[in-house]
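Hallway conversation turned thread

IA: we were arguing at lunch whether anyone had actually written out Enoyl-CoA hydratase domain-containing protein 3, mitochondrial end to end. Turns out nobody had. So, for the record, here is the sequence (273 residues) and right after it the structure tokens. Reply here if something looks off.
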Amino acid sequence: MADVVAFKKEEPNGLLLREVNGPVLRLTLNNTPANALSIALMQALAAELDAAAGAKEIKVVVIAATGKVFSAGHDLKEMTLHRADEDGGRAFFETAIRLAADIMLKIARLPQAVIAEIDGLATAAGCQLVASCDLAICTDSSTFCTPGVNIGLFCSTPMVALSRAAHRKQAMEMLLTGETIDASTAKDFGLVNRIVPQQYLRQVVDKYAAVIASKSPQALKIGKEAFYRQAEMPLADAYDYAVGVMVENMLGNDAQEGIGAFLGKRMPEWKED
């Protein structure tokens, strides 16, 4: 495997928009018209996720996009230019694809819940981004696909996220055919949680974010990590692991406060983790 090379790009200059509303961080892909995941955009997104991980005031992260395309995936024009490199582009391809994979891992490991807000097409690594988020809410006109097979490039890295979000046979259907599915089919496949009219998309996402942000940050952090870890374990091992997690959670301050508030018929007062 080739060494990952740090390809320096110009400053993002608006490729990623950042907005904070109380405990909610909204990151908006702004590389129109296709919101391609260029090196510069991915570096900006990775940096924001790293910063959010250590920001106790942030409880929820929303990933949205401007324009009619949520994301068309990797910037194929940028990648094609590097075929002229001495190594045929190998080092650049490794860097770009690895950077995308690292972003998906950052989302899974982020202590905060991450919500994808989709209005338009999410394709290839853009679909991977949707599948990697904890929740996904889309408009009724949104569409999804993993079309690599159509251009001789199987969507192997999108496959990792897709096969963990959608049902296995439905994920294979998307990967093998490369065909575009509509929002209703994406919901049936398990790729998205909710479908809403376009005019209500932001309102619904904000409501989800507010509800999640109102919960115990300690419980959310523990629970999200446990969810992804147990999902990769055999059933008996998952229960053994979850028992330990829940015992430690019960011993925590937030569980004591939350149970006390429930029994005392009052609202809980969460402490910063």
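OS: looked through it. The longest strand covers residues 16-21.
IA: good, adding that to the notes. Residues 1-12 have pLDDT under 50 and may be disordered.
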